[in-house]
Amino acid sequence: MKYVILIGDGMSDEPIEELGNKTPLQAAKTPNMDMLVQKGSIGLVKNVPEGYPPGSDVAILSVLGYDPKKYYTGRSPLEAAS
Predict the structure, then answer these.
(1) Could you report the average pLDDT of every consecutive run of 10 residues in the chain (82 residues)?
(2) Domain residue ranges of the chain, discontinuous segments joined by +
């Protein structure tokens, strides 16, 4: 079985006056995401260990199979690699 993991980092954002006080996601046309919602399945996983900041850097390490307790050294190495 093949998987696609969609990480919506930053999708929530803040409402913007120029968008009618909607968030960018609320204002966006999302036909492909709508299709994924209809055809996909959803799951929930806790991938931020206790005591770690609940940020995307820690979470993405975990999603990619790296134990944050062993490999997390801060956001900078991830930013540099990207």
Answers:
(1) 79 92 94 92 86 88 92 88 81
(2) 1-43, 47-82
